[in-house]
């Protein structure tokens, strides 16, 4: 039997006050890095508090690692400032892109899985790690289509990014499940393709079915099928720190803590 | 790099265009436009309340297509929404709306701004007279001065949560100061004298220049005590020494 994984929460602003007053037992608190890019004010004051009570994970959504545009040095500088100030346990970003030609979609868009994209992403992960002076984690994203030019299977692409850049993997189990349904991946084969030594953190979240597709809304409880896949992931990768993400239609903190408890019990 | 760039450029063109998309790419278009709408709605709650959600949604979508986000930090998206509204034909009858939007952008920027400091009066007092006259005060990073021909501060105030939307004044201009008091953002309508004074500080007037203004001169002590006390003025620099620190002038 596996011991339960250290369970944490993606903490969002509407829950700051209650979470601080109750100080629930959490192995990790994860926040979106970009929400703390300002010079001061409430966001950074809250982050100071939570950092004093919990190990912290800075999860970026806007660096656009896979973009053909040059890396945004201003963005990287703000991230670096945050990392140096808060000394988080993890710093992570997504295996995706969101901008080209200076135009940002502010979404996690799918990369074509080509040799060119692989080489590009690896070089950028190396740059970011050099700049931050530490290893980062890269997360697999949900997607709704296959790009015709893709030549490398998604899990192999992710594994190669980690192997060649030396970054860790933040494995989002819900995203594997969603992609398996949407574009016909084999979720078990996905887990098997990832080197256990590379996985440092996992995510679970809720999805919703819209027009025959599973949409990664982060707006519902974790699906039972995802919990089943998560238990398999824990068997393969060990009890890695795992975050429950919920971003839209936020429920009460108690509901989130129930989901966190399921991570620990999985 | 060209294949990757071409592929990404096509993808964004699809998302931001209005051509038909298959159901899979349509998910991306929906998600992207919804995220950008939500970001604008978070920054502009009063504008949204004033015009209602259907109007706001349409305006937000047109704005997002015409003025794409330029940063991976979504908090930086939407600065030009006030200017967009000033030229938006459907808002032509709502002449106060662009000013309210500029005020809301300032509130959002102030929320994330560096915390106010405090003027070091001992250092100031220790300066020899010839240096003291060359002092330039500095406004806190969260300070914004916004002028409007319409009572935007009153409208903003009346449309905060729990208020019924009826402004105390329905006409007349507003000289609005947005600033940080500790971690909280404050919005104040200023008297013309205080407005002119803080504007002068914002654009880098020296102590000598401030004292040389007849109206400022007779009120200088009160102005300095009040605005340094509120930490709206939170620092100073010597003219010529390390330049003038970034001045947070009025937006727009």
Major pleated sheet of chain A: 8 strands, parallel, barrel
Strand content of chain A: 15-25%
> What is the approximate shape of chain A?
globular
**Helix content bin of chain A:** 40-55%
Radius of gyration from the alpha-carbon trace of chain A, in angstroms: 17 Å
**Number of alpha- plus pi-helical segments of chain A:** 9
Which segments of chain A are poorly predicted (pLDDT under 50) over 5 or more consecutive residues? none
What is the total domain count of chain B?
A: 2
Distance between the termini of chain B: 38 Å
Description:
The complex is a heterodimer of chains A (about 270) and B (about 250). Chain A is α/β, with parallel strands linked by helices and about 270 residues long. Chain A is built from nine helices and twelve strands. Chain A has helices spanning about 15-20, 40-55, 75-85, 115-130, 155-165, 175-185, 185-195, 225-235, 255-265; strands at about 5-10, 30, 55-60, 90-95, 95-100, 105-110, 135-140, 170, 200-205, 210, 215, 240-245. In chain A, strands 1-2-3-4-7-8-9-12 form an eight-stranded parallel beta barrel, surrounded by four helices. In chain A, a hairpin with a 2-residue loop joins β10 (about 210) and β11 (about 215). The N and C termini of chain A lie close together (about 10 Å). The relative contact order of chain A is 0.15. Chain B is mainly alpha-helical and about 250 residues long. Chain B folds into two domains: about 1-95, no CATH class; about 100-250. Chain B has twelve helices and five strands. Chain B has helices at about 1-15, 25-45, 45-50, 55-65, 80-85, 95-110, 120-125, 130, 150-160, 190-200, 205-210, 215-230; strands at about 135-140, 145-150, 175-180, 185-190, 235-240. In chain B, the strands form two sheets. In chain B, strands 2-3-4 form a three-stranded antiparallel β-sheet, sandwiched between helices. In chain B, β3 (about 175-180) and β4 (about 185-190) form a beta hairpin. In chain B, α2 (about 25-45) crosses α4 (about 55-65), α3 runs antiparallel to α6 (about 95-110) and α6 (about 95-110) crosses α9.
């Amino acid at each position: 039997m596996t011991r339960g994984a250290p369970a944490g929460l993606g903490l969002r602003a509407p829950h700051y006050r209650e979470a601080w007053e109750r100080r629930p037992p959490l192995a990790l608190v994860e926040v979106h890095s970009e929400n703390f890019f300002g010079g001061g004010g409430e966001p950074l004051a809250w982050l100071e508090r939570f950092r004093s009570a919990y190990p912290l994970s800075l999860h970026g959504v806007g660096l656009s690692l896979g973009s053909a545009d040059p890396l945004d040095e201003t963005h990287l500088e703000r991230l670096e400032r945050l990392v140096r100030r808060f000394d988080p346990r993890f710093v992570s970003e997504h295996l995706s892109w969101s901008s080209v030609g200076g135009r940002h979609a502010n979404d996690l868009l799918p990369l074509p899985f080509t040799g060119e994209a692989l080489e590009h992403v690896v070089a950028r992960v190396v740059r970011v790690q050099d700049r931050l002076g530490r290893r980062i984690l890269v997360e697999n994203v949900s997607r709704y289509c296959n790009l015709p030019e893709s030549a490398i299977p998604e899990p192999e692409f992710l594994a190669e990014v980690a192997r060649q850049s030396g970054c860790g993997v933040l494995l989002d189990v819900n995203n594997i499940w969603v992609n398996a349904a949407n574009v016909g991946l084999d979720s078990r084969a996905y887990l098997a393709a990832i080197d256990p030594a590379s996985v440092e953190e996992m995510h679970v979240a809720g999805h919703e079915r819209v027009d025959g597709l599973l949409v990664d809304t982060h707006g519902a409880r974790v699906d039972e099928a995802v919990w089943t896949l998560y238990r398999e992931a824990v068997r393969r990768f060990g009890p890695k720190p795992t975050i429950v993400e919920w971003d839209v239609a936020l429920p009460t903190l108690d509901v989130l803590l129930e989901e966190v408890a399921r991570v620990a019990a999985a | 790099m060209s294949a990757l760039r071409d592929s990404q450029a096509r993808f964004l063109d699809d998302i931001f265009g209005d051509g038909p998309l298959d159901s899979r790419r349509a998910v991306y278009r929906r998600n992207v436009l919804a995220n950008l709408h939500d970001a604008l709605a978070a920054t502009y709650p009063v504008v949204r309340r004033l015009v209602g959600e259907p109007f706001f949604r349409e305006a937000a979508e047109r704005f997002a297509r015409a003025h794409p986000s330029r940063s991976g930090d979504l908090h930086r998206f939407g600065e030009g929404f006030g200017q967009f509204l000033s030229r938006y034909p459907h808002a032509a009858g709502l002449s106060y709306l662009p000013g309210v939007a500029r005020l809301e952008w300032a509130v959002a920027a102030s929320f994330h701004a560096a915390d106010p400091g405090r003027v070091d009066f001992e250092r100031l007092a220790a300066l020899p007279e010839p240096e003291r006259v060359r002092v330039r005060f500095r406004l806190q990073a969260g300070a914004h001065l916004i002028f409007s021909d319409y009572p935007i501060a009153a409208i903003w105030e009346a449309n905060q949560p729990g208020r019924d939307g009826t402004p105390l004044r329905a006409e007349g201009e507003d000289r609005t100061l947005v600033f940080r008091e500790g971690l909280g953002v404050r919005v104040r309508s200023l008297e013309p004298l205080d407005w002119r004074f803080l504007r002068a500080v914002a654009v880098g007037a020296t102590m000598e220049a401030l004292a040389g203004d007849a109206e400022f001169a007779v009120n200088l002590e009160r102005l300095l005590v009040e605005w340094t006390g509120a930490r709206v003025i939170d620092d100073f620099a010597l003219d010529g020494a390390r330049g003038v620190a970034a001045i947070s002038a009025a937006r727009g």
